[in-house]
Amino acid sequence: MSSLQEAPKEIYNLYLQTALNIVTYFEDESQEERLKELTDLAEVSAKLDLKLKKSCEILQRLSAPQDDFNGNQEVIDHAQTLEQFTNEIEGIDTDVNKHKKFQDFQQQVQVLLENTRLNNAANVNDDELVLTQNDINVIDPITKRRINDPVRNTVCGHVYDRGSVEALLKANKQTRCPVAGCANKNYLQLDNFQTDILTKRYLDRNPHAD
Ligand SMILES: [Zn+2]
User: Fold this and answer.
1) What residue range is the signal peptide (predicted)?
2) Per DSSP, what are the bridge partners of residue 150?
3) What pTM was estimated for this model as a whole?
4) What is the pLDDT of residue 1?
5) Distance between Cα 181 and ligand 1 center (Å)
């Protein structure tokens, strides 16, 4: 079960890594088309993901034993349940604007492209990348050391080192975003983390910078 739950997270990390590869290695006219194909694929995954999650919820609700007015458990009418299930899954809302990982994927690709275009326009060396308004922070807010494997909190956009934030959560599940002044007051959730490709590219290109 855990591998099934992990699957959507891994899929989006793969899509992000692929987008980074496309931007890095296809600096020609095919780049746009390749990114479009990848985005279409990511969108299909987002729709399937929404449908699967909602179907499980519906199935659980419909198959839960119900008490009748006398407090006795009603016998489930399987044919009726199946019909209701079929009707309900047809009406599932698969609006990908509500899929956080897909939204984050799109946003990251956009920022990466903008950053790449700015750098190309400025004609700078790889090791003096122009920083956009989204300043790249390579220091992990938890250990105060250079990030090794950057993950982004899709709720607030802050970036941490994967290892250190996972260790933090292992020690205490009720941990909030460690960045000072962060407006996100919810507890951190592993499920909300995605690879941060802009930071990843910067770290790859600047192995000694901090
Ligand atoms: Zn934050």
Assistant:
1) none
2) 161
3) 0.80
4) 43
5) 8
Question: pLDDT per residue over 156-193, tens digit each?
Answer: 999 999 999 999 999 999 999 999 999 999 999 998 99
Using H for helix, E for strand and C for coil, what is the string for the chain? CHHHHHHHHHHHHHHHHHHHHHHHHCCCCHHHHHHHHHHHHHHHHHHHHHHHHHHHHHHHHHHCCCECCCCCECCCCHHHHHHHHHHHHHCCCCCHHHCHHHHHHHHHHHHHHHHHHHHHHHCCCHHHCCCCCCCCCCECCCCCCECCCEEEECCCCCEEEHHHHHHHHHHCCCCECCCCCCCCCCECCHHHEEECHHHHHHHHHCCCCC
**Taking a C-beta distance cutoff of 8 angstroms, is the pair 94, 51 a contact?**
yes
The domain segmentation of the chain, as residue ranges, is 1-100
- The letter for the amino acid at 164 is S
For residue 76, what are the β-bridge partners?
none
Give whole-number Cα distances, 6 to 10, 162, 171, 191, in Å. 6, 15, 21, 8
CA gap 102, 67 in Å, rounded:
40
* CA 178 to ligand 1 center in whole angstroms: 7
The first and second tokens of residue 123, run together, are 């004609």
In the reported structure, the alpha carbon of residue 129 is separated from the centroid of ligand 1 by a whole-number distance in angstroms of 24
